[in-house]
Write a structure and sequence with these properties.
Elements (H helix, E strand, L loop, with lengths): L1 H21 L15 H20 L2 H5 L2 E8 L6 E2 L1 H14 E15 L2 E14 L6 E13 L5 E10 L14 H6 L1
Parallel strand pairs: 1-6
Antiparallel strand pairs: 1-2, 3-4, 4-5, 5-6
Length: 183
């Protein structure tokens, strides 16, 4: 009798050890993303400064390098631009025609883990290269950033809207009265 009891006890002990060894460790609690880390806020502030400098320099490629490859840019009264290449192409065409001075004034800069937000107001002065007088407009902007695995923050989405509607097109010059009389 001792033998079957000892064998049963050994079997139960072995199964207990094996059963315990196969139990996976409980999952670790998720780590909360860091909110508004000072180094992340500083990086978004630096990205805003780089954007303004590149605009003033008329450097479409430098601006494009601030965007993710699949970024979407939605500017006031313009079609949406999808992808870095479309953004650079649009800016290149614009910079061939005008010089631009942009001032961005942030009202809110936030981060949560790998997502950032910059919201504020802008003033932009556009000076046609053909010699027409400059035009200035003001508005609001919002930029969504994502932080890559390399630690670099890039624009994923941006949108702006002017505070005032665009100026109506200039009226056609009045016809010369003499040419009207000859008709």
């Amino acid at each position: 009798m001792f033998r079957p009891y000892a064998l049963s006890l050994a079997l139960v002990g072995a199964l207990t050890v094996v059963g315990c060894a196969q139990q996976p460790a409980p999952p670790a609690a998720p780590v909360a993303p860091v909110q508004d880390a000072p180094e992340d806020i500083a990086a978004l502030n630096a990205a805003r400064q780089a954007f303004m400098a590149a605009y003033e320099a008329g450097d479409a490629t430098a601006i494009g390098n601030l965007y993710t490859p699949d970024a979407i840019s939605e500017s006031n009264n313009q079609p949406s631009l999808k992808g870095r290449e479309a953004i650079v192409a649009s800016l290149t065409g614009m910079f061939e025609q005008v010089a631009v001075k942009t001032t961005l004034t942030s009202e809110e800069t936030r981060t949560l883990g790998t997502v950032g937000l910059d919201r504020g107001t802008y003033t932009v002065t556009v000076t046609p290269k053909a010699g027409a007088p400059p035009a200035t407009s003001e508005g609001r902007y919002m930029v969504v950033y994502v932080k890559g695995t390399d630690g670099k923050w890039l624009v994923s989405r941006d949108m702006d809207n002017a505070l005032m509607p665009p100026a109506p097109p200039a009226a056609a010059p009045a016809a010369d009265a003499k040419s009207d009389a000859k008709s």
